[in-house]
Queue: 3 jobs
Job 1
Amino acid sequence: MNPTKSTIAVTSSSTTGITVTLESTGIFLGILVSVSVLASVAVQIISKMNKISSSITQIEEGMKEHARNAEKVRQLERTLDLHNLEYVNRKDVIQMLLGQLDQKITHKFKRLLFYTRDLQRFLQKKGDYTIREYEENTEEE
């Protein structure tokens, strides 16, 4: 048996150019795979950075909305405080007016009671008028 020799690539010394061997092809393919892996890692990093950036943007918008709502709440609290103050003032004025009316009614009632008693005494002295006693006890001042 004759041993056979296999030749993968034969180059002649007279041609100029790049000589491609199995080893150089493996190195070249290794470089391409490494570059593609690095590119995919770079794409993943960039996509994660974009997600983080969009999350930060959403958080900023949320905080701006929260700040606007907080300002609205402060304005509503100020308005409520003003309304409460106005209510207290009106309540005090109404209580004062009711107190004055109560004093006037009491004063007028007492004057009417005194006039009525004077008339009763006068009628009792002048004629046969009898004074009826009521159950109500009033104090004279």
Job 2
Amino acid sequence: MYPETAYEITTQAPRPVDYPAYLPAPEGPAMLPSEIPPGVQMVTLPGGVRTLAYTQPTVPAAPSVSVVQPIPAWAKTTALLTPTIGGGIAAAGIGLSYAAPGLIAMSQALWSAVALVAAGVIAVPVLLRTARGASGRTTTHITQNIAASGMFGRANGTINQR
């Protein structure tokens, strides 16, 4: 149950000679075996020091009793909606595969309409200009001559019409 450890378990009381020089010697008499609480034993550490240590858990683990909890409403709703959403996505994919030829034809018709509008924007002014030239009417030329002295000076000018 417990992993193997690197210490030796003994039941003898500690002796003053077992303590290293940097530790003070214990004061008073050694503990009697009846005074050692349950779960505590004398152990010899890898450095040769002998001491009391807990060798087993002192508090028993609580038994794991699983209480059945109800499933939340949001989880039930999500579980019920998931296949519906997946089916809707699948139906949309199938519908798009059937509609693809019509969508391609509509996009080609849209580009044809854009080309027709562009041709009309170019062709209408050309046709109007040629129609005006055939009627014999000439355009009016207006010439303005304006002169001013200084930044805020009064401006004088003439307008000539030909």
Job 3
Amino acid sequence: MKNIFLSLLIFVVMSLLHAQFTEWTVRFLGLPGGDFGMYSYLILIFCCVITAIGLLTVIIFRKSYHSISRIAILFEAIYLLFLIISGNNPFAYFTNSSNENLLMIMMYANSLIVFILMYLLHLIYSKIILTKSKN
């Protein structure tokens, strides 16, 4: 049961990080609010679907997902798969240089940044658990 709650917590944190980084990216690129103002909310809804799929996967394969890094890899794999399926082409920027196409590249970069943050969290969490088990 602890594994399920940990995975739910990781999925929620990663969803919120993706939505926040998307908001910062849209603001940084200066994209128009009418077209891209709700883009971060779309990503949040998108991540909620990924959370449901990932949580179902963790429940089914409970013994395989026991660490934060494995749960983060699962989330990012589903996230990248959904980005590809939704038609988010990162190479469109090289044929048509615009901020809208740069946003597509930044979505993939945000995914890498969120994964690195979760991996660092995994390292910190592992150190804490290791020191507690030694005592």
